[in-house]
Amino acid sequence: MSRPRPASQHTVRRHNSALVLDSIMQAPGSSRAAVAARTGLTKATVSSLVDRMIGAGLVAEGEAQARTGPGRRGTALHLSPTGPHGLGVEIGVDYLATCLVDLTGRVRARWVRPSDNRDSSPSRVLAKVASAVRTALAEDVSVGGVGVAVPGLVEVAGGTLRVAPNLGWREVDLRGELTRRMALDVPVLVGNEANLAALAELWHGDVAADFVHISGEIGIGAGIVVGGGLFEGVSGFGGEIGHLSVDPRGPRCGCGSRGCLERLAGQDEIVRAAGVSGVDDLLTRLAAGDKAATTAVRSAARWLGVALAGAINLLDLPTVVLGGNYARLEPWLHDPLRAELDRRVVSAEWSPVRVVASSLGAEAAVRGAAGSAVRAILADPDPYVTSVLT
Description:
The protein has helices at 9-26, 32-39, 43-55, 122-137, 174-182, 193-204, 261-265, 267-274, 279-287, 291-315, 325-344, 364-379, 382-389, and strands spanning 59-64, 75-79, 85-91, 95-101, 107-114, 143-150, 153-155, 160-164, 169-173, 188-192, 211-216, 220-226, 229-231, 319-324, 354-357. By secondary structure, it is an alpha/beta fold. It starts with 8 loop residues before the first helix and ends with a helix. This is ROK family transcriptional regulator. InterPro entries: ATPase_NBD (IPR043129), HTH_MarR-typ (IPR000835), ROK (IPR000600), WH-like_DNA-bd_sf (IPR036388), WH_DNA-bd_sf (IPR036390).
């Protein structure tokens, strides 16, 4: 058994850099002295680390603060809005989305391109992604990392998409392919779109620390947040609620099973049952009180209730956040879904389940992807700082 070794100077600096930046992030406007007091580090150490992060563009100084005692007036420290941005990419079944967010999570720009990716090879779609990335880079901002959201099982550590039934993709090295095509010397993070949407809702939405975010598009995915953290399962493959069989005799699904939730409550099934051309047409019919449209949405709500009640009975989650196109349909989904949950959730009498629309809607996954790239820098800033200053 090897003995523990003393921490190197670099390891200590890396730890302390994260500590200092977190303090600034949690209390914007703090002075160096205030950061030293909160972190327990010496003022000299804090000043040195802050100067490095200012040089790398992570921290910006504001106006000098009012002096309450002897000594120099401190200056207010903030995350720099002109510092490295996160570039988010979402590969949807029928669209591609990209966005840029700054260190504070503010969206600088967002683009959405219709794209039927179901009939395209990974190579062809990734060529479109590279083109979309070039458009984003024309904004002339520093990009510190790229986050990619994809509808399928992702091995996050290696950036490999294992399977995406609705795209027809298997075993795609997304990290490697996109790193090569984008020609950017920055980290590339790949994640499941529902998980990244749930994280965006946690970071920027109006929900507490425990909820299930269900993304309703052509496919259906769930991001589960417990205690303010994402629950992904042992292998990172959790949340595939769209492939939960709610009707064993139901229609065949692309995953190989029958009666999966997304085959009964996904976008394609709702649109087909309503006899409309798309979600926009569906919303128009719903607003007009069209019977077929209303019946189609109520049927989807019932199947959603079956699946979500099982998840809530298992995990004891207090809130359901309806994301993606479900957010747009929430006024018509809410009551029948709540009724199904009240009937099926064992604890509903004592702990009624709250059902709310996502405040981010269709933007959640791509914002979560961009935000994950930013937060990777904020959680461990020293590698970025070192790369910029050397």
